[in-house]
């Protein structure tokens, strides 16, 4: 009995709503849909601007040239809006007061793919859509032959990079070479090879450990590739164009060597001045030795007279 009453209540409510809807349509069927009676809402969390209200209103006018509420084909209008490449979903409905509501959710790009000179966006669901001439959304650039069945995995990788502060600081792009993926870094000219798209968290954690424990003490130009695709090991490839003289350690040794060379000639000058002083002292001594008679004339007589003076004064 309870189920019968529930079914009866549902049927009555549906009939009442249908009656009210038909009454409202008859009432507003002759009225025109003006701009004030069109409400467009964009429901995406991340703001994007591939389409705007003007674009949607133009589609409404094309689908319904008369502009009357009674001539509006809502399923057709909804189909036209959903056909737009940048639209993820659209919901179109009329209020009882004759107001047209359009709830639209746009596609939000996760990355921008460039391959063979073609560029297009890919969202989190792996759907690709063309770039816009009027709006460019900031997102990570991916290059190489990325297959459609890999779109969702690549989008997941980009999302993890954006959410992690360390990864977001280091990784600025992704490239695919044959079947191996590489992460492009903001520091140095090296790439981080990750291989396939499996165990991404573990691979990024291994690179982070390598940076904190070793790479911070090295010149970032020293390596051309750092591979973390192997289990429990990191393989580095040296940059063939890297010059050892460019390293910070070598520059430090060079500065010390320059300092040593500038000090050494000063020591030579000191030795020369010391030798010159010795020569001068020896030459002066030799000159003094040549004149022995001059020393005996004046000083010796005075020395002889001094005891006489002392003898002159007697205290007894």
Give descriptors for this structure.
316 residues; alpha/beta; nine-stranded mixed beta sheet; three-stranded mixed beta sheet; 8 helices; 46% helix; disordered C terminus
Number of strands: 12
Termini Cα gap: 162 Å
Strand content: 15-25%
Average residue pLDDT: 78
Low-confidence segments, ≥5 residues, pLDDT <50? Answer: 246-252, 259-316
Major beta sheet, strand line-up: 6-5-4-7-8-9-10-11-12
Explain this structure to me?
There is one protein chain. With 316 residues, the protein is of the alpha/beta class. The protein has helices at residues 2-28, 53-63, 74-82, 151-163, 165-170, 200-213, 248-290, 292-312, and strands spanning 38-42, 87-94, 100-106, 109-115, 118-123, 128-130, 140-143, 171-177, 180-185, 191-195, 223-227, 235-238. The strands form 2 sheets. The chain has a 9-stranded mixed β-sheet with strand order 6-5-4-7-8-9-10-11-12. A 3-stranded mixed β-sheet has the order 1-3-2. Strand 10 (191-195), helix 6 and strand 11 form a beta-alpha-beta unit. 16% of the residues are buried.
């Amino acid at each position: 009995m309870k189920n019968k009453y529930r079914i009866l209540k549902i049927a009555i409510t549906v009939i009442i709503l249908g009656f009210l809807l038909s009454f409202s349509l008859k009432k507003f069927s002759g009225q025109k849909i003006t701009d004030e009676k069109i409400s467009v809402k964009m429901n995406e969390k991340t703001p994007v601007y591939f389409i705007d209200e003007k674009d949607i209103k133009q589609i409404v006018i094309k689908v319904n040239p008369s502009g009357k509420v009674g001539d509006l084909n809502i399923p057709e209008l909804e189909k036209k809006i959903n056909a737009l490449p940048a639209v993820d979903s659209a919901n179109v409905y009329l209020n009882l007061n004759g107001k047209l509501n359009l709830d639209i959710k746009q596609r939000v790009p996760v990355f921008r793919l460039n391959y063979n000179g073609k560029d297009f966006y890919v969202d989190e669901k792996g759907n690709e859509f063309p770039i816009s001439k009027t709006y460019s959304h900031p997102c990570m650039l991916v290059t190489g032959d990325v297959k459609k069945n890999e779109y969702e995995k690549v989008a997941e990788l980009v999302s993890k990079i954006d959410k992690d502060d360390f990864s977001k600081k280091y990784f600025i792009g992704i490239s695919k070479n044959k079947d191996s993926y590489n992460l492009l870094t903001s520091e140095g000219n090296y790439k981080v090879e990750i291989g396939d798209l499996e165990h991404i968290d573990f691979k990024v954690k291994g690179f982070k450990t390598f940076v904190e424990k070793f790479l911070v003490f090295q010149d970032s130009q020293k390596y051309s590739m750092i591979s973390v695709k192997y289990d429990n090991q990191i393989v580095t490839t040296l940059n063939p164009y890297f010059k050892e003289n460019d390293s910070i350690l070598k520059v430090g040794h060079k500065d010390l060597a320059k300092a040593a060379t500038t000090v050494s000639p000063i020591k030579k000058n000191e030795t020369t001045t010391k030798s010159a002083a010795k020569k001068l002292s020896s030459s002066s001594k030799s000159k003094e030795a040549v004149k022995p008679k001059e020393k005996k004339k004046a000083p010796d007589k005075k020395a002889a007279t001094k005891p006489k003076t002392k003898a002159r004064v007697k205290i007894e």
